[in-house]
Structure formats: C-alpha cells, structure tokens
Amino acid sequence: TADIVQLCVAVIIIGFACLGNMFIVLVFLLEYRRSQTLQPYELIVTLLAICNLVSEFFFTLWLVVYLLNLCTYFGEVVYQVTEFIIVFLPKSVIWLTAWLCFVYCVKIIKVNQSLFKRLKQRISLAVNCMITVTSSVCLLLSFPMVTHIKFRPNSTKICRQYHVVDQELSILYATVLSLLTSLLPLILMLVSSLGIVIFLCQHSRNMGKNVTPSSTSHSDAHISVAIMLICLIALFIACASTILCINITFASGQLDTVLVITLTNIIYSAGSPLILIIGMVKLRHSFGEEVYKINKEIQGGKQRKEVGTEVIKT
Questions:
Q1: Cα angle at 197 between 193 and 203, to 5 degrees?
Q2: Which of 5, 127, 252, 289 is deepest in the core (most CB within 10 A)?
Q3: What is the DSSP string of 269-310?
C-alpha cells in the first residue's frame, strides 16, 4: 500500500512537471521558428526543459518497475538503460542550471576587462562548448552506474537488491559524482548570482543620481532575473543537500536511498520550470496570454450557452 501511495504521489508531481516543461519547450520552439535563432540563455532553458521531460518519462518507468517489483519482466538491460538515463539527465540539468546562472551573470554585469568583453561577444560559442564539455563529463560519470547492476535470482527482493557493491569503489564513485555534478555547479551558481547581486546593488546607487524610465525598466528586469536565479539555487540546495548525504550511504547498499534520490530529482524537475516561467519575461508573458485566451474561450462558451438557452425559451 505504501508503495502504491508513493507511486501515485510521484506520478502526480511528474504530471505537473511535464506540463511546465512542455510549455517551455513549446514557447521557445515557436520563438525559434519565428526568428530562426535563440539567445544563449533561451537555448539553455530549452535544453533544460527537454532533459527534464525525457528524465520524467524514465522516472515513471523506473518507479513502476521498482515499486511494483516488475523487474523480472523487463530484464537487466532495461534496468541498466533506465538507471543510466536517470543519472545522466538530472546531472546534466544541474550543470545547465549552473551555466544559466553564468550566462545571465555575463549578460548583466558590465566589466571593463578585455577577457570579459571577448567572452560577452562570443557567448553563443562559449555556451555551445560549455554544454558539450559538461554533457560529456556527465556521460562518462554515468557509465559506472551500469556496471553496478546485476540481478540476484535467489533474492526475495530482486527489484530492490540489484546492485553489486564494492565498498571502496562505491565511496570513491559517490565522492567524485558529488564533487563534479553537485558541488562544482553549486559553486558556479553561487559565484554568478553573487556577482549579479553585487552589480545590481552598485547599479541601484548610481541610478539614484540619474533616474530614467529605460534604466528603471532594465533594472527591474535584472532584479527579476536575480530573484529567479536565487530561487533556482535555493531549490537546488534543498534537493542537493538530500542527495549529497544519500550518495555517501549508497556505498553501504541501503537501496531505499535510491528511491529518495529519485523522488528528490522529480521534485527539482517539477519546481525548476515553475520558477523559470515566473522569472523569465518571455515565458511569463506567454503564459499570461495563454491564460487570457483560455479565460476568453470559457467566457465565450458561457455566453453562447446563455444565448442558446434564451432562444430555446422563446
């Protein structure tokens, strides 16, 4: 019964997450179709939403197999592929979030250094390189997870006791995984966001002397971005702090921790699109337009129904 409840709760969260991520992908696909290009931060957000969508599908598959003990019907290969993807994609999402903070930092901050200026001019190329490198690193770090999977036919819980654990290697793997896919991205997020906050504080002082409508609107947009990034970081810290603690206990073979990590990743994939939709102007306006259209359709349907009722009465 507890497993069924956990599965139902997870599926509900995944449903909301899919709606948010599909909306983000749709908005930026339409933007690309209209302008034939995407800004670097828009490309990162689109990839982040796509990774979330794919991982949510595999999260659902993994939860059904894991909680309902169906692994013998699917076999080791399906389990290996599923575990590989639910490690690789969430780690990629973390790095994409970190690069999003970095790109906004480069975009907002004004520094009179030649290196920083060249980076700002070539930010599109830099983003492509950053995404390629970090995706390759996450790919390599995800492969060892596959080697840990081997079913034990004599076990009473085949679906939950399928890891072959080497104590020393598991501790080393968990440490490297946490360092490269949790701690380093977190440091990049914090440094980038701190840079934006410091710049905005200095900028607000200067604005007190020379206030213009354009500078005020730019400042409001930058503040909105800063709040959005801080909320993303807060969500990441809340989820990552749980995962960081559990990654260490993975070496002891306490496999219930795998379920906690999966649920934590699901919560992050559901919370991040909500924060992005509220924080990004383009997404917020698109969402407002869609809500307005839906409301207008509902109102129009009510009016047509009332007119039809009056015609019947007459």
A1: 140
A2: 127
A3: HHHHHHHHHHHSHHHHHHHHHHHHHHHHHHHHHHHHHHHHHH
Which one is predicted more confidently, 243 or 77?
A: 77
CB distance 176 to 84 below 8 Å: no
**Fold observed for domain 2-279:** Rhopdopsin 7-helix transmembrane proteins (1.20.1070)
Distance CA 136, CA 251 (A): 25
210-239, pLDDT tens digit by residue? 555 555 556 667 778 888 888 888 888 888
pTM of the model: 0.85
Q: What is the rounded CA–CA span in Å between residue 92 and residue 265?
A: 12
Residue 59 near residue 17, CB atoms below 8 Å: no
Sequence-ordered list of residues with C-beta below 8 angstroms from that of 59, at least 6 positions apart, any chain? 10, 14, 86, 262, 265, 266, 269
For residue 149, the cross-strand partners are 163
Query: 163 pairs with which residues across the strands?
Result: 149
Separation CA 229–CA 250 (nearest Å): 30
Cα(first)–Cα(last) distance of the chain, in Å? 57
Q: How far apart are CA 239 and CA 205, in angstroms?
A: 35
Q: How far apart are CA 242 and CA 240, in angstroms?
A: 5
The one-letter amino acid code at 198 reads I
- Quick: pLDDT tens for 196-208: 888 888 767 665 5
| Contact (Cβ atoms closer than 8 angstroms) between residue 266 and residue 59 | yes
CA gap 209, 309 in Å, rounded: 63
Instruction: Say how many C-beta atoms besides its own lie within 10 A of residue 174's C-beta.
Output: 17
